[in-house]
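User: What would this chain look like folded?
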Amino acid sequence: MKRQILALVAAGAVLFAACGDDSTESSDTAAAETTAAAADTTAPASGGDAKACAEGKTLEAGSLTIATGDPAFPPYVLDDKPESGQGFEAALALAVAKELGFEGDTVKWVRTSFDTAVAGTDNTFDFNLQQFTINDERKQVVSFSAPYYTANQALLGAVDGPAAAVKSMADLKALKLGAAAGTTSLQYITEVIQPDQEPFAFNSNADAATALDNGQIDAIISDVPTAIFWALGSEVGGIDNTKVFGQFPLGDQGGDEWGLLFAKDNPLVECADIALANLTASGELEQITTEWMSNYTEAPALPES
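Assistant: Here's the prediction, encoded as structure tokens.
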């Protein structure tokens, strides 16, 4: 689930057939819902001076420290090199940094695990981005920016594996499911799917992908873009012979909103919100999202029953 994607645009032509009796119409509807949700990322009013706001508020004077995963993977970061600005979150991070007054050598990158970041136990960064869903539980120990993307959860499994027989949400209970520890995907398994077997919690998305590839689990629950990327196969860093069998019904919120993650009550949050508002108003956030994520939203809808 990592490595490069120069074939990113070409990969968008890949079509995922709906499971069971799902029609092309249901797939198109699900894609439209996900795309609409992705666009629904509101931010504070634009026009503020994010650079002036950020003065004296970073960990180190004169520099901005940004964290990402280890490894960081497409379509969020290409070649595990966030400093290149290639990939959705890499490009977004550098755009936010520029708004805050940091470019080139004044931007530093560090790596953290997902679960330690959401637990609020790692404060080695000014902000962190690894597809962190904003929710009330996490807000008790960390702070978030305004959302920059919204995604839904999806089911990924081997083409000819047990997940291929899934026709509805109810069929998921019998599967051996896995997800990365600390993620809303794992929470979705335990609280919504409630499988018959204890789900597997992995240290990272990379470990979850390896477990599926080895047959240790029947399926992975992940956000839609990550699932679609995995299904592209090992040539681009995904998992061979896998398929996205469906994305789940959107919740009341309309999907998971992702935000930049900060140490609890970090004053830099206000500045990041100004930066995101400015990027939204200028159209740059939309351009970044379209360039890197437009090929990662289409997946069939999985019926509830």
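Confidence is low (pLDDT under 50) at residues 1-43. If you want, I can go into more detail on any region.
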